[in-house]
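Final paragraph of the annual report: two paired records, presented back to back.
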Amino acid sequence: MANNESIAHDTLVIGAGELGMAVISALLEHRSSENERLSVLLRPKADDASDPQATMLRSMGLSIVRADLATDTVKCLSGIFAGFSTVICCTGFVGGLGTQCKITEAVLNARVKRYIPWQFGVDYDIVGRHSGQDVFDEQADVRSMLRAQSETHWIIVSTGMFTSFLFESSFGIVDLENGRVCALGSWDNRLTVTASEDIGRLTAAILAHRPTLQNTVVYIAGDTFSYSQLADMIDQRLGRSAERILLSMEMLHSDVAAHPEDGMRRYRLAFARDTGVAWDIGGTFNAEQRIAVMDVPTWLMRH
């Protein structure tokens, strides 16, 4: 582990990718005092001075903490986390299986006052274990760890799928270039998505909410739709009818069996559900607080 700067700061954001930067930007906007200091945990760099990302983050007023989530021990990570009252994990499944449990164990051992884990996704209470995606199973384990203790308060922000991931070519659901939409399991199955920018804004709003939210799951949503409705939206975007392809459960299971090492195929199977991956917008935090968010047509227009 590389040397760290002073960590006498209130909040630590783990990761500065798509979500991490969105959360950091929103926290800076919500900051009411210079005493509410913010740090970000990044991977170690051999030459820290030439790291453009670190330079940019420092220019925004953040301090940099260096750690390797994959190789540093739980004890080492706990020593880092103990310097913060709030830890927000914005690094997801790229760390590999077991990383989220490791981070959570370190946070709990450090007795961090408040923790937002990487649960920015589906309703893992409903999805449960044996979903077909190992990292989904681990998320259920993280929830069990949090609920088994009382010293660290936690907030789970359920976002559904990131809107950008819906249009990821390797995911294979929407192909705008070739005018194609695939449905997972059924055209009637629904999906909730939220843009990363909105996740950042809403996470900051959830942290700032009074009375304080704690030990609870908070649902947010940018859009909720069936695959049939998604195809209609793509038709409108393209100005013509997109090709519609149904990926049945039998096809998805066969695909995973033939390519067990392929994470994207497992994701398609895990999302091919009629429960746990979608919820009505009316009951979400953003709807209740009347916070405007991006639906799919708006996201397409902006991106």
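The closing record of the year follows.
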Amino acid sequence: MSNLGQNVYMEIQPSNVVSTGKVSFRSGNPVIQFIIGENDLHLFGSSVRFCGDIQFFRDSAKTIQLEGDTNLMNIDPKLGIYNIIDTLTLSSQVHKSTIERITNYNRFMATYMPTISSETEALSHLNATSLVSPNKTTQRIQVVNNTNGSGGSPLYLGSSFCINLPCGLLGGRNPIPLSRNNGIGGLMCEIQLSPDSQVLFSGTESNTNITDAFYELSNLKLICEAQVVAPNTSVGNTFEYNSIHSYFNSVNSTNAILNFQLGLSNVLGAFINIIPSKYINNLKYDGLGTYPLLQDDDTPAEIDSIIFTRGGIRMPIDYILSTPNKEDSNQNQPDPNVFRFFMNSIKDYNFNNHTQMSPLTYSEVVGPVASDINNMFGVGVPIDSISGQGVNFQNVNFGVQMETKLTTDNPNALYLFVRNRSTLVFTPNGVQVVN
């Protein structure tokens, strides 16, 4: 009896986890590797799920946090379990060629997740599967302090999660061929963990009580669904998907001029999220927050105007985006033009019915530390939202010019994420990505 056309369900264990099954950045094994072997299968990318348990400890003695403790440790609530993923790499198992690599993956998700999901979703299914929450206090009580009913037992399972891994390759509509002759030759998925000091924060001036804090993962696995197909002896094929590319820069002046050499030929959109450099890997601050530009006293440095350029020429917007802050620095509402372009750079504004973006969360006046509200600020622009073919930035720079009120010496880190239409070419001899 033929199995052609039947779906198979796979549960894959990590190939590089130590015998204890416990994984943490602190213990010196920050990379988790899963291998979906080459086979006559078509993998459904949207079915891939990363599953396991996570527990947070205040010190090396594995002390569980209580709500009555001082200097309570937190994680960014809008990210949940995505806090821990620093880099996501997808490559061919046979040919070892990298197909997609997203650095600063948790910062990408810090903007992507709240943009496409509502507060109701953050309180319901995303809370159950991804440990996401709409505010810091709820997140801390439900996840960071959670012992999963273990009581006085030394075995703390903490909180379980089962998440998809949003990226270009796994987010495509077409199934991914895993065969060697007419596919990518198996798929290797590597998850690089983020440092404890980047994931955890206290939000207070003194954080001496959590300087030894860390997180630990256990019971890790990857589950997915694939379809059995007939063996194919053809010599190759192509596969298109929207890849995500990450870039970094910083600003520390009132006239911020940024130029990025993308090296991409089919750019569809780009967005930037921001954080003061002193917040990164600092237990005092949320290192994965998406704030407006901030002065050295943590007050907002409003953006007065924005220009996007291609090779020094305004594009795709041929005018200056001037905000109300230019005339009145006491504005409490975000500029609707800047807000709409930012939303469109991630998902078409007209079809985005699930979002946590609002005048409250996107405003440049939300307090970064004292407030329990998630900051969700960013700047972005859709490059090609009509044809879907993208714009060529192979040999010309993508530029952003911002006139700001940043008048103090306080470098702000800017993370740029670009969506590009890529083509994957695969043959029995190798895999090549054409960007």
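The CA atoms of residues 118 and 355 lie 4 Å apart. This concludes the annual technical report; the extension proposal builds directly on these records.
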